[in-house]
Design brief:
The two termini are about 15 Å apart. With about 210 residues, the protein is α/β, with parallel strands linked by helices. About 20% of the residues lie in helices and about 35% in strands.
Length: about 210
């Protein structure tokens, strides 16, 4: 089910907070999943584009894997949400640029410094042979979230919009709108027709 309500609720304090599995998809694409935020990495030579860093523990593990692959610089870090689960380990990766939703610029600079880029309109990043599309979302799971679609690999990254068999933690004061949430999920899946969906938490598959 889209919103992960088909199984028992797992308290946040009982969730494993570290990425547990580094999975190669091909020679230049990797998923780190199994913790409090699933992450995706695209490599291009000695540079990388990353979707979500996770907490400090997963980010450190990711950094070690990137070094092993010969990556010297994280060029772009796309944060699908500003919740700590998604991006708290960002400094470990020392990205050249952090792309986030359309939050007030002064708030973003307090956290990320001058390297942040606020995304208010759809944006395309050409990354090698991959076309990475960043889609700003209306309030649903929370406010100012982003979805990301990889056109060549047909992978849709929904961030907090999709938890697979784990009930999401709801924050009513942060833009939560269940009708908008469900509507946007249908629109995104219908528009992009992905082969795979990467949830915020939980397993992913074909």
């Amino acid at each position: 089910m889209f919103m992960g309500t088909s199984v028992q609720y797992i308290k946040p304090t009982k969730r494993h907070m570290f990425g547990t599995l580094w999975e190669p998809l091909d020679e230049n694409a990797f998923v780190q999943h199994g913790g409090s935020s699933n992450c995706l990495v695209l490599r291009q030579g000695d540079k990388a584009l990353v979707v979500n860093s996770g907490q400090a523990g997963p980010a450190q593990k990711m950094l070690e894997e990137l070094k092993r692959l010969g990556v010297r610089q994280v060029e772009n870090l796309i944060a699908t949400s500003l919740f700590q689960d998604f991006v708290n380990g960002w400094e470990k990766l020392a990205p050249a640029q952090v792309l986030v939703g359309a939050y007030p610029v002064d708030r973003l600079r307090e956290y990320f410094g001058e390297r942040c880029l606020s995304i208010a309109e759809p944006k395309i990043i050409e990354w090698g042979l991959e076309k990475v599309e960043i889609v700003p979302l209306a309030p649903g799971f929370s406010t100012r979230d982003l979805a990301v679609f990889l056109h060549r690999r047909k992978i849709l990254i929904l961030g907090g919009m999709f938890y697979n068999r784990i009930h999401p933690v709801i924050h009513p004061g942060l833009g939560f709108d269940v009708d908008s949430w469900v509507r946007q999920l249908g629109e995104l899946v219908g528009r992009f027709k992905p082969d795979r969906i990467l949830p915020a938490e939980g397993d992913w598959g074909k």
